[in-house]
Amino acid sequence: MRWCRDIVGQVGALEPGMQALSDAEVAARTTALRGRLESGEALDALLPEAFAAVREAAARTLGQRHYDTQVMGGALLHLGKVVEMRTGEGKTLAATLPAYLNALGGAGVHIGTANDYLARRDAAWMRPVYGFLGMDAGLVNGDDATAAGRAERRAAYGADVTYGITEEFCYDFLRDNLAYREDECVQRGRNFAIVDEADLILIDDARTVPQITVEVQQADLPYQKLAAIVARFRPAVHFSVRAGRRDVSLTDEGGSEAEERLGVDNLYDSANLRLAHGLQKALEAAVLYQRDRDYIVAQDQVVPVDPVSGRLQASRDLGAGLMQAIQAKEGLAVRPQRRPLAVVALHDYMKSYSRLAAMTGTAASDAASYDEIYKLDVVVVPTNRPVIRIDHLDVFYSTASAKLAGLADEAARRRESGQPILIGAGSIEEAAVISGLLTEREVAHEVLTAKNNEREAEVISAAAKLGAVTVIAKMAGRGVDIVLGGPDGSADEREQVADRGGLCVLGAERHLNRRLELHLRGRAGRQGDPGESKLFASYEDEATLGVLGAASAARNSKMIRGRGPMSGPIFTRIFDSGQARWAAAAARQVQDSLEFDAVLSAQQRQIYAERLRILTSADLSSQVKDAVAEVAEDVILSCVQEGGSPRQCKASLLELYPTNLNTAELGRAAAGSVPSGSAPGGSDRLAALVRTDALHAYGLREAAVGSAAMRRTERYVSLRIIDHHWGEHLQEMAALSEGIGLRALGGRSPLAEYRREAAELFAGMKRRIKRDTVRGVFAVKPHDIDAQRDPG
Fold it and tell me: Per residue in 169-210, pLDDT tens?
């Protein structure tokens, strides 16, 4: 922070000089700074002057001068830190400082955020700052990712600074790695990224896996029958649930019941493992996934709801049969499963940037995870003005219904004075219940959930108007400013709200994840405004059960039943300690998961590096000829070692390419070899004969189709075969991951077993890629190649 304050001083010292310059002279600083960079001056040395230029550009174009704390935040982002700046402290404007500085080199800067609204808003809002300085700002969203919109997306990535949905950056990365020509690619590398809403993206969504899929044609599981079976199951009899965790498992009685109804002797026999997997997914769908909390049903389709932000995720497949299980549970048509063509874990994509930085309103509580996953340090920037918000003690109720009634009473009481109220609900369903209770009390209010998210900016920005009452299902990731009196309110309206205590935030539950509470509280008391917050909880809440356990929660509930709600520091301390335990367990789980993720990530890097080499190579003939010779040799040697006749071995070659190899000559060469292939002479003669034949066949093929067509065929076939086998490999790895527990019986390490089997699968895939590439080069007709293939 001493360094940050030094930077603030240096930028401040340059400010009078910048203010004295004309618009054209300030804009000319970009050319001058780029010249100094090209001359070898370090980027860090340019920081004070670059920041001073951006501060002046923002003041002239937006009427917003960066606070000193924003300069601090920008400097820390440039260093590659996770920067915690409280809600309302101006992270969006702070990001322009390091974005401009790092764009001077010409490699581009990506600023990723959580949703389309924020990406569009930030790009439009900050574009005048960059434009004033001679830079451009592009926007990447989910509007048109097809071939028709490819030129527009390529232009967006070609801008100096590119704003976008972080997940969409991932999808473009995957599409580029399915491209068949260089001009189909839209990204131009991954130089420097700044992630907004970092806790939501880098922590909560770290292990989400954006994927491009195709529908598979295969016999599907009887999902409706499985749904009917688990619908009859009773908790603690047929299945058990770990309180506070998304973990459900069959009991012995449940397994026996399922076997009887499915007509199988042993559900866990190897022949029934796929059925057992489907039953487990049906159980998860029935017990763990609730409608209007985890998903909604719209137009006869299941649409997942993000558990943190509360937004719909129409493009996300819950995967591995779970989506089909939920469809069956809801009585909808079960859609066919899809096979992945390309996948990438979000955390793995983010780590592919040369440099990464992030910003959020709540980072300190996740410092260990940022370090574990990304090797990034967290730095907390002080607020521009002191926080004077009053955080009241939590209130605990015996039952959930009593809690929500108490919350509604509190909102109605405060509403009488005109104090604006923001109520944070835990789900769509809970928001609807609270809305009904407010209506009973004749309290006019607005409701924002995943079902009407198109009104997000309108509803949230008006939440601090005099007398406003707003109910929102999930608050994290909603980067809309809440200004006292409303965005268009007068100074008098702002003063009236402040006189009534400012915005009051009421939370309908406590969370295991402390950060979600901080997000909600942080909506009040921005930039030194007055404000209040108060959280309501019950001993029936899922989070409370997770902290105390079912038995302890029941005892506490019984203790306060009939005595009314309880409030005091001891209740809060108990919950806070539970949050700490949950955070430690979550960090351990992340660490374990990353070790498994690293296996597939390393394989993907190899495949994509090879694919990029093929895509960008002008001539693959040398590589393909080596493969032709090597595969032919392997086929013949294997055939001979297995006792195949010369005619049989020649037939094996004919499966790869046309050959006129003389069987008698093949037999003579084979007669001198030995099964082990270790003796000199015979096996060497056999290998030489086959390699010569294979290269001769290759030469005939090239002469027949022409060199240009041969080069085109080699590239197309090589890419297509890689894509096909990589997609199959992804399926095999998913199956391996799910079943590794069974493979690791007998005291063996699941991770060691996973690594070993994954390596075997990968080696086998590479052998098949080489074999099928050779076959394809000889079989595919150049005029049949669809050079315009669009992977999605």
Answer: 999 999 999 999 998 999 999 999 999 999 989 998 888 888
With pLDDT > 70 as the criterion, what percentage of the chain qualifies? 92
| Residue 604 pLDDT exceeds 60 | yes
Q: Is 395 exposed, middle or buried (0-12, 13-18, 19+ CB in 10 A)?
A: buried
Q: Which residues of 436-470 are buried (b: 16+ CB within 10 A; e: fewer)?
A: ebbeeeebebbbbbbbebeebbebbbbbbbbbbbb
Rounded to whole angstroms, the Cα distance separating 152 from 434 reads: 44
Residue corresponding to tokens 């082990």: 676
Under 8 Å between Cβ of 701 and 749: no
The pLDDT, as a whole number, for residue 248 is 83
What are the backbone angles phi and psi of residue 766, rounded to the nearest 5°? -65, -35
Q: In the numeric block, which tokens belong to residue 363?
A: 């980072």
Distance of CA 465 to the CA centre of its chain: 35
Tens digit of each residue's pLDDT (9 = 90 or more) over 382-413 = 999 999 999 999 999 999 999 999 999 999 99
Inter-CA distances, 673 with 177, 341, 390, 650, 667, Å? 43, 42, 87, 16, 10
3-state helix, strand, coil in the chain (%, to 5): 55, 10, 30
For residue 354, what is the DSSP state? S
Phi, then psi, of 754 in degrees rounded to 5: -65, -45
- pTM for the full model? 0.83
Q: Alpha helices, DSSP H only, in 161-203?
A: 166-176, 198
- Tell me which residue of 97, 201, 109, 93 sits closest to 163, measured CA to CA: 109
- Token output for 279: 């039953």
Q: Provide the pLDDT confidence category of residue 141 given band limits of 50, 70 and 90.
A: confident
> By C-alpha distance, which of 351, 319, 349, 350 is closest to 337?
319
Greatest Cα pair distance in the chain: 103
